[in-house]
Amino acid sequence: MEAYNVIQHLGRGTYGNVFLCEKIHNKQKVVMKKIQCETTSEIIIQAKNEAKILKMLKHPNIIEYFDSYFRDNEFHIIMEYAQHGTLYEYIKVNKPDLLSKEFVISTFTQILLGLDQIHNKFIIQRDLKTENIFLSGPNRNVVKIGDFGISKTLQNIDKTKTTIGTPNYLAPEVCEGKPYGRKSDIWSLGCVLYEMCALERLFSGPMAKVIMDIKSGVKKTIPIYQYGHGVQNIVNLCINVDPKRRPTTKSLLAHAEVIPMHASLMVNLANYCFPRLS
Questions:
Q1: Catalytic: 127?
Q2: Residue-number span of the structural domain to which 54 is assigned
Q3: Catalytic residue among 67, 97, 116, 127
């Protein structure tokens, strides 16, 4: 078991407090999530579930799991530290006029690659949003999916029914309490893509309006002059109210807007680096 120094409190995750720490022996920075054992058994179950799922997922576009253990009446999860924070923070703090198309397509493709690995493992992320997309690398050019506290392993079934997640990103079938599967993550992915392009959430406002707009399949247009009709097409495909008509991660990776970036990322991944983005 590693020994760590706590550097600072980063905030709260789905449950528990999150700290930036460093390993004493080599000064490597890591993230430590601490969950009090006095909390409800359900929270501890979720924390163990997150550790179990993270351990299953080894991919450059997913936050890496290092360790988990009980100590001092707390459950600890040790994870990779993404030094540039979340995509949500990047948009909110920088308040750019618009993100470059290269950044948007690269970020989207890397999220898609991570999500493809998640779905290949028969897991639903269930809370895909800009707050759970982390930026790493020297120039914010490495993108990682994190926070698997409410993720679900499908095991021998294709769908689940628990209504859970962040309301602004919920798929219609989740809002309606219907069985749902991996296509619910595709809906959330479309919401994230729209948010990167428009710098605002696709569904926002009072909760009743958000749910009504989601169930009715409200569509909005991104800045076409910046991103083109191809990116708008991806958004529209992802937020189809019929989950059967939404694409899979594999079909999205074959989309004309994604193929060149996918190929570039695969070449650079083979060389253990990613292209620099402005």
A1: yes
A2: 4-80
A3: 127
